[in-house]
Structure formats: C-alpha cells, structure tokens
Amino acid sequence: MPEFEDHLPSPLADRAVQRMPFDGVLTDTVAAEVPVALVFNGISHAVMMATPQDLEAFALGFALSEGILDTPQDCFGIEVHTTTVAAVQSVEVHLDIAARCFARLKERRRSLAGATGCGLCGVDSLQALDLAVPPMPQHAWVTQLQAATVLRALQAMPALQVLNARCGSLHAAGWASPEGELLQVMEDVGRHNALDKLLGARAQAGLLGEAGFIVMSSRASYELVRKCARLQVRALATISAPTDLAISIARGAGLQLWGLCRDPRAVLYTSLSTS
Predict the structure, then answer these.
(1) Which CATH number is correct for 140-268, 3.40.1190.20, 3.40.140.10, 3.10.129.10, 3.40.630.30?
(2) Residues recognised as catalytic
(3) Nearest to residue 1, comparing CAs of 79, 78, 85?
(4) What is the pLDDT of residue 112?
(5) Is the model's pLDDT at 51 over the cut of 60?
(6) Domain ranges for the chain
(7) 81 secondary structure, DSSP code
(8) CATH numeric code, 12-113
(9) Three-state helix/strand/coil letters over 191-242
(10) GO biological process annotations for this chain's record (predicted)?
(11) pLDDT tens digit string along 2-46?
C-alpha cells in the first residue's frame, strides 16, 4: 500500500531556462503533469497524466463521460490522496460508487483482459469500440445558435485561463449560456481532462441539465464529442478543426459541432439532423 501525503502537488512549477540568443539564466513557469490514478471501490481503473487541480471534479466527470456512472448520485464519495511512486509525486482519487456500476466496471475490465488485437485504447477488436451514441432530444435554442454567439464565448475564454496565462501550455474547456456568456472554465494539460473537469464540476453543482454549450481550446476529436453527447451536451465549439470521425459521431448524436472558431469566422460541421 502506498504511503499517502498531505498536500497536492502545485499545478505550476518554476524551472531555470536559457533564452536564445543567450541573455542569461532565467526562471520560467511551466505546467505540472502528474500521474493521477482513478480508483473505484478500491480497484485502480485508469492512470491519467493530468494537472493536479480540480481532481474531484475530474474524477467524477471521467466516471460519467466514460459511462462508469449513470448519474452523479451513483458516486457516494470522493477522496484525493497524494503519494510518491518511483520518486515521482503522484495522486490517487478514490471513488465510492454504486454496486451495479462497480459490477459493470468489473465486467468491462474482464472483457479487456489480455487484449492483443488492434491495440486501440486497450480494446481487442474493432467490434469492442464504443462509438455509438444514442440521438439526443432536440432543443429549440440550439437551432438558433449563431456563429457570433459561439465566437463571443471563445473570445472570453483567455481571460479566465488563469493558469495558462502563466505557463502557456494548458488546454481549457468552458461552459457558455445559449446567449454566449462564458460561465465557467477548467484547465488541464490534456484536452480530455479539461473537459472531464468541466463536466464533473457541472455535475457537482447539479447543473448538467442546464441549457448551454461547451467551448474548447483544442481540436474536436471523437472522444470529446462522445463525452459531450453522453452527458447530453447539445453543442460543442473548438478553436481547431474536428476529425471526420468526430463529425460522424456528432451527426449521429444530434450534437451541433463547430470548429475553426477564430473571429471573425466559424465553421458549422453538423446540423441537428440525426440522419
């Protein structure tokens, strides 16, 4: 058993650097990237490299967006512990979850044991890929979402990226109202982690069902689209372009997907049609 410590690592660190052309040794602020183990009912399920901040929200968002939990109420408690493994400061996040969710997780782990097939994310066959997302109910406000509204939310994001302003290497995921008012931003070295932190924070506050859309400082990969659709997020807008698979999954789920959102232009890659 690891020996737990009292304090989380800092999300930022100062390192000595040399700027070229050489003008002396200076100090630069960089983002921390630490192993974070997600432990469900005592069993470690995944280890993610993440920024050590907002980890309770991260763990809950991951559990929901990956289908481990059905609702936030399936999580009865979360504890965050710091330890040192091979001289590297690491974190374990322990979640106490409902018995039916844990039984499903154990069955999933058994199905992945000894995977030697295509090697994609640990699955052993193409048939094991979990790419299908049921269509979401359509909401009138999404049909009225305009590029100017999406760009308004993205333009407001840098001011709320307080960690990235210091280190310049963190992704951000933000929640915007249907009118484009940016209400919340979460940061992490990983775009998936930033999204899970945001979804988890919304779940903790009981706000997952509110109307609104997500904006991100990254490209739109299929994983981001799938996570959003699983939690009934109706629209996603990213600064960079999406992949073809992301567009296909968004269309099937009825998620409005925007990309290349850089003022004064934005590209709409899907409509609300689920065909």
Answers:
(1) 3.40.140.10
(2) 118
(3) 85
(4) 54
(5) yes
(6) 12-113, 140-268
(7) E
(8) 3.10.20.10
(9) HHHHHHHHHHHHHHCCCCCCCCEEEECCCECHHHHHHHHHCCCCEEEECCCE
(10) Mo-molybdopterin cofactor biosynthetic process
(11) 566 668 899 999 999 988 887 777 899 999 999 999 999 999 999
Between CA 39 and CA 7 the distance in angstroms is 19
* Per-residue b or e along 130-162, where b marks 16 or more CB atoms closer than 10 Å to that residue's CB: eeebeebeeeeebeebebebbbbbbebbeebbe
Instruction: Print burial letters for 207-234: b (CB count within 10 Å at least 16), e (below 16).
Output: ebeeebbbbbbbbbbbbbbbbbbbbebb
Mean pLDDT over 167-175 rounds to: 97
- Parallel, antiparallel, or unpaired: how do β-strands 265-268 and 235-238 relate? unpaired
Cα 45 to Cα 36: distance, rounded to the nearest angstrom: 11
- pLDDT category, 85, cuts 50, 70, 90? confident
* pTM, 2 dp: 0.90
Q: Identify the sign of the CA torsion 18, 23, 27, 31.
A: negative
Asked if 173 and 194 touch (Cβ cutoff 8 Å), the reply is: yes
Which 8-state DSSP code applies to residue 10? Answer: P
Residue 75 to residues 14, 56, 94, 99, 191, Cα–Cα distance (Å): 36, 11, 10, 10, 24
